[in-house]
Structure formats: C-alpha cells, structure tokens
Amino acid sequence: MAVTFKQGDMFAEPADAIVNTVNCVGVMGKGVALEFKRRWPGNFDEYKRLCDRKILRPGKVFVYQNTDMLDQDNWKFLVNFPTKDHWRGKSQIGFIDKGLDDFLAQVAKLGIRSVVLPPLGCGNGGLEWKEVKPLLVRKLSPVDGVEFLVFEPSEKGKASGSVNMEMNFERAVLIKSFGDLTDYFGGSLTRIVMQKIVYFLQAMGVDYRMAFARNEFGPYSDDLRTVFSAMEKKNVLKGFSSDTRETTVVPEAYKLADEFLQGDERHRAEEVIKRASLLFEGYESPYGMELLSSVHFLADHEKISDVDGIQKALSGWNPQKGEKFSSDIIGIAYSRLREDRMIH
C-alpha cells in the first residue's frame, strides 16, 4: 500500500496504530507528545518507567497496547518513537533511520495494517522536513499490506499575527528562558512559575529592574504581571489571560529572540538559562518554585542565614507556608541554593 502525506489533525484519523515522537528521559512536554500524555496516561506511565530504567533508547520503539474502550477499536497500538536522547537536545536523522527499522519490525510482528505518523523529528525536534520526508518514503514505501498516513509540518506553529515587540537582551533572555524551560513544567507555565523564573533570572544578573516583595506564593512583582499581560497582547505569549492561565511562548517570538542573541550576548544567555535549568531540577512545579524562591528571598533579601531562622520566617510569612514546608525540605532547598551559588 502507498504512503500518503497530508496536513491537519492526526488525532482525527482512525488507524490501528498512532506514532508519538519522544525523548528518552521521560518527558512529554510539547505538541503531539503532550496530547499523548493527556489522552493516554497509562502509556505515559509505562514510557516513563522504561526511561527511568534506561531501557528506552534511540533506535528502538516502545509499543503500548491501548485498551481504552473510548477509542472504539482505533489506535490499538501507541508507538513511542525516540527521535532524541534528552528533551533539551535536537532530534537526529540517524535515530529516525534506525528507529524506522525497529518500528517496521514491530508493525509486522503485531499485524498492524494502518498507521498514523507525525513528521518525525521536525518542529520542536529541529530537523528539516526536506531531509525527513525522503527517508520516510524510502523506508515505508516497500512495505506491503500496510497503509501509512504521514502528517506533514503545517503553518499552525506560527503566530496568528506578527510579534509586536522590540527585542533587547533582557527580553530575549526572558522569552528564550520561557521557551526552553517549558518542558520542565509539563508543557506550559503557570503565573506563579513565570514570576519565579524571572525572579531567579534577575538574581542571576539579568537586570529587569523589578521589585519583588512578599506575597502569598513567594516573592512577587505586580509590575511583572502587567508586563506578561502586555507580552500576550503583543503576540509574544499566549494563554496568560485564558481560563486555565497556562502560558506558552508563541513560536515566532521564540525564533526572533533566539536570532537576536548573537556573540557574547548569546553565550551569556545560554549560560544563564543553563544555570536556571540546573537550579530548577526537582522543583518543576508551582509548589517547588514557591519553596525555592521563598527560601532564596529570605536568605538573600532579608539576610536570614540559617535553616531554623528561615523556617520561622516562613511561618510568619503566612500560616500556609509554615504548614506545607517542613524543616527538612527547607533545608534541602537551602542546600541547593548554596550549591548553585545563589546564596552564600
């Protein structure tokens, strides 16, 4: 049977199997992968377990047998196809080449007759469609008895209007930070997390000239909330004023920020974002970011230099903080901040 290419919603196409591109560290944070996580949590749990055990590697696919009755005999098999090792990295054409061999072996073994695929490794993966498409044609066309429907990259990732913001170093770092760190926080950023990211970027030397003060969920800048709202109106952010308040960076804005950063400024930006990503590991939630930023605020701004003093100050900040942050987790957060040279 032929290989067919089209654009549109791959989840609207019935088939025996549907393919999801994944990394090998257990994160489904954007695009098709995030939709897979939402639709089929059992698949995600098993995928993450394989990643945690270092079993899932590029070149091998993981096929999950879907038993969800709501799918009405569609998508009996969910194919998790690694196109990159770590989510921070880019997809590699070699991983796709080898992965297709294993994928086709699984198709034959399981008797799969129809498959829906995304543009493997393109979009967030960074590969060019003009490089991936010929590989798919070469690998899939000779297969008899199986219908392959491949969804090509579309224009949907572009902003609905032009980005209306003049770029400078500080804005470019903020936009690129939000874009690069989104996967850490499940594919979108809450308002609390956005505030805390900027709080720490400023603590790392990026001068946003924002005054942060005690607030219910940690250090907070009301001026920053106004900035985020303006960035949404200028088509840089989307979702900030939505009912869910789950915010993402508009792809075109990310591209402009990334292209703006050149030379020494690019090196500085990458170092800051890398430092932030390492600091946030293990704290990738509103709860974690509230804890980390509150401890830092008390140690750095209010000069409280011991864990017992910080715990007392948190209890005095508001009763909820005293109840939800134990001395043990405060101590761990304090140690992380010291190790990462955020406090002395």
Tell me about this structure.
InterPro entries: ADP-ribose_metab_enzymes, Macro_dom, Macro_dom-like. It catalyses: an N-(ADP-alpha-D-ribosyl)-thymidine in DNA + H2O = a thymidine in DNA + ADP-D-ribose. This protein is an alpha/beta fold and 344 residues long. A 6-stranded mixed sheet has the order 1-6-5-2-4-3, with helices on both faces. The protein has a two-stranded antiparallel ribbon with strand order 7-8. β5, α4 and β6 form a beta-alpha-beta unit. The N and C termini lie far apart (66 Å).
Round the mean pLDDT to the nearest integer and report it. Answer: 90
Strand content: 5-15%
Strand order of the largest sheet: 1-6-5-2-4-3
* Poorly predicted runs: 155-160
> Rough shape?
elongated
Would you tell me the structural class of the helices and strands?
alpha/beta
Terminus-to-terminus distance = 66 Å
